[in-house]
Specification:
This protein has about 475 residues and is α/β, with parallel strands linked by helices. It has 14 helices and 13 strands. It has 2 domains: about 350 residues, Rossmann fold (3-Layer(aba) Sandwich), CATH 3.40.50.1820; about 140 residues, no CATH class. A hairpin with a 2-residue loop joins strand 12 and strand 13. The chain is globular and about 65 Å long. It starts with a strand and ends in a 13-residue tail after the last strand. It is an enzyme of class 3 (hydrolase). Keywords: Hydrolase.
């Protein structure tokens, strides 16, 4: 079927319109510029997946698994659209992929199942600029270009999704990991206001936001790697830019340094949104002020967010090493390694040193930012919270990203197309997870809302679903300054 858009006509097949440009291709001349609209003559074929953002593997075992192996190129600012009916007016899901703001794509097989279209939701997955192209401060260029790309995509959706059978007034902005971080940041960006009616950050809230000072330090690191002045960064060849980007990412991930990375040291991801004209407040501060997007939100995490991350460490790590490794990461929170480890060891006496590392790092990066963001936003808008997976001893359970395959599960699909670490084995659980997401996107969840006074979460486990008090909420007290 051929659909006319504001950019040009596209030809899809069986309700799928793949790699549809929402902004112009990225080249040496506009690599660090604000996005501009795409346009084309004639009818563009949209029956095949196209290029993804250029990237190199980084961030240890988690980043390796998230790195796209698909063909990269210049024409990657695209959307993949699947619709149940081009003549309908269905709710819309706009999905932002994860990957530490440096790797990943919207074209991965796990996101191309058509699960939401099969549930009568128009689904849209977004490719955007990553790493230095998307998040490096470059003098004379706009900051947060990756987020500006997503805003451009949301604007395109607002103007065109009705032609694909979607309701532009019922758009849920969702994403996992860095995609969840991006959703939280976009909720605090004035330019994104009004472009979505619901928000769904998944395993990501607002962990790493760079100050202008910290962003300038990263600019200097990249300039030194490339051997050019900051003002000359736009002239760097793409291959050299990506190589320097990988070196900086690997360094930040393996060696957390607060002096070098600022607040980004908590996460170990250097390329993050930057405070400034386009993002005036940290998302958590904006939420506390009641200045995040006035939309309902569903948010949650897995039960063992840092389980896979811990595979990079020896299982017999001792407590002294745990303290040393955590010290620079907790410093931006006003904590010392000694203090936070002592508090967690007292609260979790059965945990081994590696279990304490998982608990503290997982709370720092994922659990507690999600809880704080949920509490703050719930003062002004309805919030629902979930927790995916069983909980085991020593902070084991469902690792980071484990629910993604379930979220995008479609009954009778070929699960062999899913990556091994996201492959669905429990189809009954997957159906319940997907149904929970659909209930938020298309209506009102059946479980109680989340507030600071009543922190109720929907537990999604292999043994069934239940509503209970958030098991991670009380651990926030361990981070209170003396």
């Amino acid at each position: 079927m051929i659909v006319q858009t504001t950019s040009g006509a596209v030809r899809g097949h069986a309700g799928a319109y793949l790699s549809v440009p929402y902004a112009a291709a990225v080249n040496a001349n506009n690599r660090f510029a604000a996005p501009t609209p795409a346009s084309w003559e004639g009818v563009r074929d949209a029956t095949q997946l196209g290029e993804v953002c250029p990237q190199l593997p980084t961030y240890g075992p988690v980043g390796q698994a998230a790195t796209s192996s698909l063909a990269a190129g210049a024409d990657f600012r695209t959307l993949n659209i699947r619709t149940p009916d081009e003549t309908g007016a269905a709710p819309v899901l706009v999905w932002i992929h994860g990957g530490g703001y440096a790797v990943g794509s919207a074209n991965e097989a796990v996101l191309q199942s058509g699960a939401f279209a099969a549930s009568n939701i128009v689904e849209v997955t977004v490719n955007y600029r990553l790493g230095a192209m998307g998040f490096l401060h470059v003098p004379g260029c706009p900051d947060n270009r990756g987020l500006l790309d997503i805003i451009s995509a949301l604007t395109w959706v607002r103007d065109n999704i009705a032609a694909f059978g979607g309701d532009p007034n019922r758009v849920t902005l969702a994403g996992r990991s860095a995609g969840g971080f991006a959703v939280a940041a976009l909720m605090a960006m004035p330019a994104a206001r009004g472009l979505f009616s619901r928000a769904l950050p998944q395993s990501g809230a607002a962990t790493a936001i760079a100050s202008a000072e910290d962003a300038a330090k990263l600019t200097q690191r990249m300039s030194q790697r490339l051997g050019v002045a900051p003002a000359q960064l736009p002239e760097a060849p793409l291959a050299a830019l990506l190589a320097a980007q990988r070196e900086v990412c690997n360094e930040s991930y393996a060696d957390h340094d607060t002096e070098r990375d600022g607040a980004a040291a908590m996460l170990g991801v250097p390329f993050v949104p930057i405070l400034g004209p386009s993002l005036p407040y940290h998302p958590l501060e904006a939420a506390e002020r009641g200045e995040t997007a006035p939309v309902p939100m569903m948010i949650g995490c897995t039960t063992a967010e840092y389980l896979t991350h811990s595979t990079a460490l020896p299982t017999d790590i001792d407590l002294t090493t745990v303290i040393q490794r955590l010290a620079p990461r907790v410093w931006p929170m006003g904590m010392t390694g000694d203090t936070i480890v002592a508090r967690y060891a007292k609260a979790l006496p059965q945990h081994s040193p590696i279990g304490l590392w998982r608990a503290i790092a997982g709370d720092l990066v994922f659990q507690h930012p999600a809880i704080r963001f949920a509490r703050a936003h719930a003062r002004y808008q309805p919030v629902w919270k979930y927790l995916y997976g069983a909980m085991g001893s020593d902070e084991t359970g469902a690792p980071h990203g484990a629910e993604l395959g379930a979220v995008w599960y479609r009954p009778n699909m070929d699960t062999a197309l899913q990556p091994p670490h996201q492959r669905v084995s429990d189809t009954a659980l997957a159906c319940r997870v997907h149904a929970a997401w659909v209930s938020f996107i298309a209506g009102t969840p059946s479980w109680p809302g989340y507030t600071a006074e009543s922190p109720q979460v929907l537990r999604l486990t292999p043994d069934g679903d239940c509503v209970e008090c958030d098991p991670f909420a009380t651990r926030i007290q361990l981070w209170e300054r003396e």
